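Form 12-C: Joint structure prediction
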Amino acid sequence: MTLQVINSPFTEQQVKLLNEIFPQLTPQQKLWLTGYLSATTTIEEITVAPGARESQAQEETASVQTKEITILYASQTGNAQGVANKLATVLQDPNHVVTLASTGDFKANHLKKLDHLFIVASTHGEGEPPDTAISFYEYLHSKRAPKLEGVKYSVLSLGDSSYEFYCKTGIDFDERLKALGATSIVPRVDCDVDYQEAANAWIEQVKQATATTATTSQTTSDITVLTNETEYSRNNPYYAEVLEKINLNGRGSNKETIHLELSLEDSGITYEPGDCLAIIPENNAAVVELLVKTLGFNDDTVSVDGKSLALSEALKQLDITALSKTLLTKFVPFTGNTEFAALLEDREALKSFVYGRDVIDVVEKFGPWNWTAQQFVEQLRKIPAREYSISSSYTAYPEEVHLTIGKVFYEQDGRYREGVVSGDVASNIEIGDKLAVYVKRNPNFKLPAAEAPIIMIGAGTGIAPFRSFLQEREEQGAEGKSWLFFGDQHFVTDFLYQVELQQWLKDDVLTNLNIAFSRDQKEKIYVQHRLLEQAQEVFNWIEQGATIYLCGDEKTLGHSVHEALITVVEQQKQVSREEAENFIKELQTQKRYQRDVY
Amino acid sequence: MTEKIVLPPQEGPFSDVERIKEESNYLRGTLQATMEYPISSGIPDDDNRLMKFHGSYLQDDRDLRNERAKQKLEPAYQFMVRVRTPGGVATPKQWLVMDQLSDEVGNGTLKLTTRQAFQLHGILKWNVKSFMQGINDVLLDSLAACGDVNRNVMCNANPYQSKLHEEVFNWSAKLSEHLLPRTRAYHELWLNGEKVVNSAEEEIEPIYGSLYLPRKFKIGVAIPPHNDADIYSQDIGFIAIVEDGQLAGFNVLVGGGMGMTHGDESTYPQLGHLIGFITPDKLLETAEKIITIQRDYGNRKERKNARFKYTIDKRGLDWFKEELHRRLGWEVQEARDFTFEHTGDRYGWVKGDDGKWHYTLFIQNGRIKDVEGYPLKTGLREIAKVHTGEFRLTGNQNLVIGNVSSQKKKKIDALIKEYNITAGEFYSALRRNSIACVSLPTCGLAMAEAERYLPSLIDKIEVILDEVGLREEEIVIRMSGCPNGCSRAAMGEIGFIGKGPGKYNLYLGGGYTGDRLNKLYRENIGEEEILAELRKILTSYAVERIAGERFGDFVIRAGYVTATTDGTNFHKNIVRV
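Section 2 - Result
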């Protein structure tokens, strides 16, 4: 058997190496290797080479028709990848040749050769595809995209209905594939934050649709969709005790950033630098009370998921904070208020209205309402878990996990509001309390080899994963250089983890540290300015193979830093803007530019 | 022109500060780099030692120290900058700049020090340079306001004899100028002065040498009968002698000093010894030669025994006079007669002999700030805008609005009323004679509160004074947060020196005119005990004093303490209870 780029998920270089080594292996060695690989690798890493399977199948029985199935995931935080993994497992069948790959690794020019294509795609930011899917997305939407008649497909989109461009990436893929002539064999499903159930249902439909007429597969496909019972999840969280809680901002700061240390004792939970911890929140009792009062309901009993409970209890578990067009549209039948209908028609007005407001504001402004308590709760989605980048290294703090949570608080329409989790953590949670949590892997924000240089760019709570990185590298005794760009408002009060960073600098765990405090001088200085000041050295590092990490707010940081990076390349490489953009894009594809923006 | 400095050998290694000075290349060290290093708002200890010579040092807000450590933040570092104002005289323009800079880069307040200087607190590292440039624009600087050199020269803020004051003040300013370090480091670091290459040759310090003095050095000038410059507490005290209405010259006192270390009896406060009289033309020469003796013989191994007072006490006054005469090449004359009447200030309006008016304000602990109902800082700003004379900072941390014409007096009077500024007439005489050092939260040496605590302690003592009828009795009360004695607490009729949080040593029996040290009366006591003791003693003073008897004299006669006749017996004859 000879591997080719075309019949395998490997790069040319890899194919070359593999083809060199395979013919030298004895059957025992091959056997050993097979076992070794399956024991040490997660499923997405073992991609069954379709060509190999095919030839084997043809040798064995030419009569059974095999299906070639390609599963692609466009994943930012790992959710889409997780779903794709499950699908791949479920579709394992002697008559199936399943290929699983990230859109970032998939060679788009192979598209037209495909038979069955399933895409699991998440959307982030303002309707943007994940970083690793940008090239694929652009290719698919370009003129070069091939005709796809004969390709059978389905798309599962993951998103958050509180955003305007809900599930946009998945929708775009679906529409584009259709436009290119592909045939949808299972209708697209759009999943909200609480995606598990809907995703499982889609997987089941795909399974049915791809089932071979042969009866053999029936027995194996009886397995229910993967439910990993030992894993903690949204439905099965771990209750972690708060060991330490510190406000990292000094007196006089405009901010309140809470450093939390949680115990993972005996949970068996582990994590890697770059991973997130999800906290399952409950709405603040006072906010719920205000909502019930505004609705004018007594604390009636309602039924949620087949369980009867008091309205105020039910509302603690439902999303009453985030407003979206999806949600407001569901409210329409329950009010005759014409202004409400008008608001939904006016995109700009709606956008400005939903910003910083919640369900209480809607109930207050657009009555009278004619719903019952039961009807009201049925419109709401389950309260989504909040994910925070972990700010500790498991190696440095075994059985602990640290978080760095910025308290969200503001006043709107004369009412003081706090973030559901951040407000609770800052104002109510005390040492000894427990939080419902589970780990969210983030395969797209990972340290490179210990000897590779890293450039970390973050502002505010964006420093969280970098604290984890530095702790990890300190524990490893990593040789690789590291450079942190950090920004916040004021040096004196907002230099998060200042003493730790100073120590790392002293110990050479951190090679360079550049800081930008925007409000310490008349003109605002941000991290992107520091990046540009250091352009030459930054580019040197990139040429030395540095991986760039960006973590922080998309609106205030993500865009500007991205632009600054392009400028750095443009200036230092002396190339056009477009070439510099491509250079950065290529870094993204190679996972040498990883983003965790929110 | 440069004389070679040969230090007599001293046994044992020099203190670490001597090394820092030696390696500093005339006070530069690595300050240029560390002041610009962006990752910390502090600077390393070595550079902080050098920073003192530039009139500044790194402090932190000690109220926040533990809290910030927990928050993983470095201490709330900030710089104190002391602005040299020889004789305490500042122009209205200079006042306005100090006022403005305190708002822009300081903590919004100004401190008038016990050595007649301005002190600003809370200046962040990044603002130190612009502050230095700001004061330079109005011809002020902070060079040698701290450090092992001659500090701000004090001078009586006498508002009565205007012409004489002017003459004596001019001598103080000349002294200050003459004894300044000659290094260009200050200009280079703060004023963008050009770097001098080959500094070794260019920058020899003709008076100080590359190691400067073993310890700080203080000079004051008094005009009897006023002793607001606390002349006995100075390393060198000059007492102006007036004969036939003319300045005849100065009596010379040597070897005074306040600092000591708790629990170390080899350290003690000392009063200056009178060694004779010199004519004004010999003033600079005399001061310079005295300083070179301390430079050459002062202890460079042990900083706590390095002050001039120990150099003299160790070798004796006769040795010192001989050495001085040898260096001068002539002998000082017999001391002339003089009498001091008080150390405190005379408040309110007085008319000088040239017809100009002077208004002395009481400023509690020298702190210029606006508080609810008492907008002192704003009021003084408004006065500075119209004032054409000068401001004089007094050694008691008070302020004289000096040289006011009769015409301007009305305007300034109106502003005084408008802003509710007081000469202290509503306060007890005890409060008007009170001094506290800065202490917590900014001073790194402080062991107990001083400036933030003394006013409230006096509130409680005033209750006793009212009960026993002593509200108008002038009693000198001073509090220092540590035994270094910035408020000259060892001279107070009632003195407090901090031992620990809320705990003080109580000293009694200082001389009202500043001519006698006090004596330890109770050790390590808190407020309750302080008030109980003072109630007992003040009550007996009210009843048993003889006519005109000062409180400091009474406590000795009544046997509460024995008199300290010399610094060397400050720790002796303590009545233990």
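Section 3 - Comments
Chain B has a mean pLDDT of 94. The first strand of chain B starts at residue 56 and ends at 60.
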